Amino acid sequence: MSKTIHRIMKVISALNMSARQFDISIGTANGYILRMEKNNASVGSDVIERIVKEYPQVNLIWLITGKGDMFIEELPKPKVRSKKEIEAYIDTKLKAQWSDEKKALLDEILLEIENAKKN
What we know:
By secondary structure, the chain is an all-alpha fold. 66% of the residues lie in helices and 0% in strands.
């Protein structure tokens, strides 16, 4: 019987994406999907939730059980994105992530400076 991770790989293929692009799009760590596939591991419900939130056209029943069709018929199939569109999307996601990390680092540094002034 096929595991959820194998069906996720089929979704990624159907969306014409790489596993890395998919990881970024659902907010998982870089290499998460490929690690799960390599280890034939189970995928957590939080990841499944992220997938159906980001890709509502994916049939949740199929994703979990393998029964039915990959995509929900009422919703349009995903459009094929150009390489340029995918790169722009990834760039935007990475910039947002780096921006958040820079803000957190700046806050941490400012706190250290304040604590150093008190001592």
